Every structure is written in structure tokens, then in C-alpha cells.
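Task: sequence design from structure.
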């Protein structure tokens, strides 16, 4: 993406590259219907299914996607408000260990939709120039508010592909 407000560590290219070009507010809003359809298609999956020993089950993968969206939204809020401290990394595997509860598919669907609706409302509350604001990660890399929005969308698209290709889930 050749957009001047896109800045992020190279690790996030795998998510950002999955997102169509466009304004992040519009992209987030239009992603809602697709996410709702994706989550609806998971209504009858076995949440305990793992495609391989030691890999997350479907419930944990969905919980991870929700946790990550909330964390990314917080990061966007922090940068939009001109922080003075670095954006802290999180260990997805530690979060996954702590989220081994038995969630119903309905709970996961509702939480994910609420998280995405929250992300949309948050980004819509930002002034346009705030989308260009950049913060630093704890590793010293720049990351912009707009990039975080793209990461939010692309992160789910990445895990949707994992569900299809590794778990054999029809989405």
C-alpha cells in the first residue's frame, strides 16, 4: 500500500496485505457484514476441534481474534490521543492459555461482533488527521492509527483462511 498514513512493523504486512485499498473508516464499516456472515457460518462447528496436537482449538482461535481486536483498538486509541509511551506487545500464546474457558459459539459470535462494532465506532470518532498519527512500538517501530485499522481487518481475514485451510471449516 502506497498510502502515506500506512506505517507498521513488517510483521503486520501479512495482515495489511489482505485488506483492499481504501479509507479505513469505510473499510471497517464494510467489514462488519462479512464478519457477521463468517461468524454465522461457524454456528455448528466443533469448538474443541484441533487440526493438530498442540494447536489451538477453534474456540481458542476465535477468542484470540477477539482479544487481538480489542488490543489493536486500544492501541489505535492510545496513538490517536498522542501517547508518550510505547505501544506494548502481547504474547498471544499466554493470552490463549488464559482463555481456555468453555465459551459457547453464541458468546464468541456476540463478543466478536461487539468488538468490531466498537472498533467501527472508535475509528469513526477519530478526526481524519488523527488517522495519520504514529506511535512507537516497544521494539522502536512506527505504527499509524490507519495501519492499526487495516491490521484489525486483516487479522481476522488471516485467521479465516487458517480456519478454512487448516481446520477444514467452510466459511
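Answer:
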Amino acid at each position: 500500500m502506497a498510502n502515506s498514513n500506512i506505517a507498521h512493523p513488517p510483521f503486520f504486512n501479512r495482515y495489511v496485505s489482505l485488506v483492499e485499498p481504501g479509507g479505513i473508516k469505510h473499510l471497517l464499516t464494510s467489514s462488519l457484514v462479512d464478519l457477521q456472515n463468517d461468524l454465522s457460518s461457524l454456528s455448528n462447528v466443533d469448538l474443541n476441534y484441533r487440526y493438530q496436537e498442540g494447536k489451538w482449538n477453534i474456540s481458542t482461535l476465535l477468542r484470540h481474534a477477539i482479544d487481538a481486536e480489542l488490543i489493536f483498538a486500544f492501541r489505535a486509541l492510545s496513538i490517536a490521543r498522542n501517547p508518550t509511551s510505547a505501544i506494548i506487545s502481547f504474547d498471544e500464546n499466554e493470552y490463549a492459555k488464559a482463555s481456555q474457558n468453555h465459551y459457547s459459539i453464541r458468546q464468541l459470535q456476540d463478543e466478536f461482533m461487539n468488538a468490531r462494532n466498537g472498533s467501527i465506532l472508535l475509528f469513526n470518532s477519530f478526526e481524519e488527521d488523527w488517522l495519520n498519527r504514529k506511535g512507537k512500538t516497544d521494539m522502536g517501530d512506527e505504527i499509524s492509527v490507519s495501519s492499526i485499522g487495516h491490521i484489525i481487518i486483516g487479522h481476522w481475514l488471516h485467521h479465516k483462511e487458517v480456519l478454512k485451510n487448516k481446520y477444514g471449516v467452510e466459511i
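The two ends are 27 Å apart (CA to CA).
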